[in-house]
Amino acid sequence: MPKLFQIVLFLTVVSFGCSKQSRIKSIEVKEVKNPVVSLNGTWKFSMTPPEEFWKTDTDFKNWSDILVPGECQMQGFAIKHDQSYAYKHDFLIPEFKEVKSS
Predict the structure, then answer these.
(1) Prior bond to 49 cis, omega within 30?
(2) Between these two residues, 56 and 65, which has the higher pLDDT value?
(3) Cα–Cα distance measured from residue 1 to residue 92, given in angstroms and rounded to the nearest whole number
(4) CA separation for the pair 56, 95 (Å, rounded)
(5) What are residue 45's DSSP bridge partners?
(6) What are the distances in angstroms from CA 26 to CA 12, 45, 84?
(7) For residues 21 and 74, which has the higher predicted lDDT (pLDDT)?
(8) Most exposed residue of 10, 23, 94, 102, measured as fewest CB within 10 angstroms of its CB?
(9) b/e for 2-35, b at 16 or more Cβ within 10 A?
(10) What is the mean pLDDT of the chain?
């Protein structure tokens, strides 16, 4: 059964950016014709996220909308080089199983 995930962009960047190719395994997605999850679209964005904002009880109504992919400053956000900020988006990730190599 698909699970609803709230994702934070910097966590995605860290997990995919730090992975090594040797760790990549083949996967098979059940009952999904195109096993690609697009991250493009309108995300919620905050230049001043509260502590532990990734928890499910956080209210994101006052967060701004931002287009992904996109550049923060070109969308009107005055980001400073040493400032943390957060993205939030909901999407479904299909269930998958590992395929064993022969």
Answers:
(1) no
(2) 65
(3) 10
(4) 21
(5) 64, 87
(6) 19, 33, 34
(7) 74
(8) 102
(9) eeeeebbbeeeeeeeeeeeeeeeeeeeeeeeeee
(10) 75
